[in-house]
Amino acid sequence: MLPTAEETANLQEIEMQWAVKAMTHAEVYMGILKAKPAKNIKLTQMDEDIYVDFRTEFPTLNIKNLNELEDFKSEAAKKKWRDFVAKYENYITDYNFGSLVRINSDEEYTEKNSMFVLRIQFLCIEIARLKEGYNNGFYEPSN
Q1: pLDDT at 94
Q2: Which of 27, 50, 56, 79 has its CA 20 to 30 A from that of 3?
Q3: 119 with 98: CB under 8 angstroms?
Q4: Are 66 and 129 in contact (CB under 8 A)?
């Protein structure tokens, strides 16, 4: 059964709220990258476990430059991510909420350099970027 017009408007409002929350999260995260050396940033209490699990399951995923179609939207990638993500349901709060991740790790968030992913995917990619040195260039020490 199709949603009513009132329900559709409500869905659009919810999507807009999610988009605003994801953008706010991205802005805060970029601020953190600029405020602290990457090696000193911890995103969860499970960073090391998430990193090891991610790199075990996705050892060749190019986190420097993400390929949205190949690495996230192909049928094979969707299945692999779906199985991976399910493991974190009881461990990461809001593991399946939407987040923005930068496609090219050398650049800040922009419309062209962002894609929508699940929170656990964001955590996997950004924890790996922190550990593998891809976020080192953003830190701006105060004089």
Answers
A1: 87
A2: 79
A3: yes
A4: no
